[in-house]
């Protein structure tokens, strides 16, 4: 078990290094196998091509981002997270979104893909939800339900609201290049917070 | 003058018909010239390749959508647009956004591109603003400034706020496939309204 898991992680680490160095289009499974120190069949057995490998890599990286966001925001119930409203479920949710956005904006793999190979993101922006988006939706839905219980989030279908929150955060995060001439990172994150707070707050509840 | 304009529009009309029938990748300048009833050099003189032609076509179609949205929303100052808040600049702006979204969701060219060739949209979602996005920003900025005068929109840098509104509407509009299992068209448009109203309203002003 350990070795199988280790090999998979080693291959994904090697894939990340290759993509960060050369880009997705110029990364081959042979390069990745060499860098990971495993045989080519070991890689081919698990991934038919580089596209499938990069998809799994992106999923792993995004799930790790989500995990860290969940840890920070989720533990912030005592209000020590710096966010004025972290004692409420809405405060925790917006703090998690903010933490995730800040990390994503500096993530070498994500920024490389957005800047140089944005067509990789197109499927998950326009056509269908991917694994990490479903994981984000689970977190968001339960955060929204918590907020509907503690009164910090308005009533409404939690799944529908989670979709809107996911797409809003994802869009502002991945379109960094379309706002950076007028909004620096702090300003962008502050505006994202306003979007979420305005959308989620009960009428008159901000 | 008239003939030059007419030729250009005829070529763009032919390009739209080709793309709607065959997709961007399978549309050639030769097909377009034949369908428009003009010579190939006439087309090649103006557009180096099909990608450039489709970019101009998309710009024309999106500017037409914006024009119609501006007409309806802009004239709605007497509140006859059906939106409860159309007497305010914020009401007009959200009514325009709603009208534009509804039209875009049924636009044959746009829906075809989003469903089948989303990589065409990737540049304008992740990398840089295009001509029609700048035109939308002009409309949004002046609507936001009007709202800051009539008190229906909170204070803040109008250009930064216009970017956030543009990206929010664009994202919800183009990611239709990622929400349609839980939000039908009316529900999606209603949620987009909540996003904009919540983001633009002064504190306690909804």
What does it look like?
2 copies of one chain form a homodimer. Chain A is mainly alpha-helical. Chain A has 2 domains: 1-48, Arc Repressor Mutant, subunit A; 55-200, Orthogonal Bundle (Tetracycline Repressor, domain 2), CATH 1.10.357. Chain A is built from 10 helices and no strands. In chain A, helix 2 (29-36) crosses helix 3. Chain A is elongated, with a radius of gyration of 19 Å. The termini of chain A are far apart. Mean pLDDT of chain A is 90; it is low at 75-83. At the A-B interface, helix 7, helix 9 and helix 10 of A face helix 7, helix 9 and helix 10 of B.
Provide the descriptors you would attach to this structure in a database record:
Tetracycline Repressor, domain 2, mainly alpha, homodimer, 206 residues, 10 helices, 2 domains, Arc Repressor Mutant, subunit A, 0% strand
């Amino acid at each position: 078990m350990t070795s199988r898991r280790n090999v998979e992680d080693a291959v994904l680490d090697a894939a990340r290094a290759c993509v960060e160095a050369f880009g997705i289009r110029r990364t081959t499974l042979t390069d990745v196998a060499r860098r990971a120190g495993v045989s080519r069949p070991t890689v081919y057995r698990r991934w038919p091509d580089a596209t499938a490998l990069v998809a799994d890599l992106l999923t792993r990286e995004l799930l790790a981002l989500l995990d860290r966001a969940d840890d920070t925001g989720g533990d912030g119930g005592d209000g020590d997270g710096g966010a004025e409203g972290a004692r409420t479920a809405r405060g925790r949710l917006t703090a998690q979104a903010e933490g995730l956005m800040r990390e994503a904006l500096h993530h070498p793999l994500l920024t490389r893909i957005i800047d140089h190979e944005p067509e990789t993101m197109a499927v998950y922006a326009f056509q269908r939800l991917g694994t990490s988006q479903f994981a984000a939706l689970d977190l968001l839905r339960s955060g929204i339900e918590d907020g509907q219980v503690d009164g910090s989030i308005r009533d409404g279908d939690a799944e529908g609201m989670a979709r809107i929150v996911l797409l809003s955060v994802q869009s502002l995060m991945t379109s960094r290049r379309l706002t950076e001439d007028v909004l620096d990172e702090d300003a962008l994150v502050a505006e994202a917070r306003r979007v979420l707070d305005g959308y989620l707050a009960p009428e008159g509840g901000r």
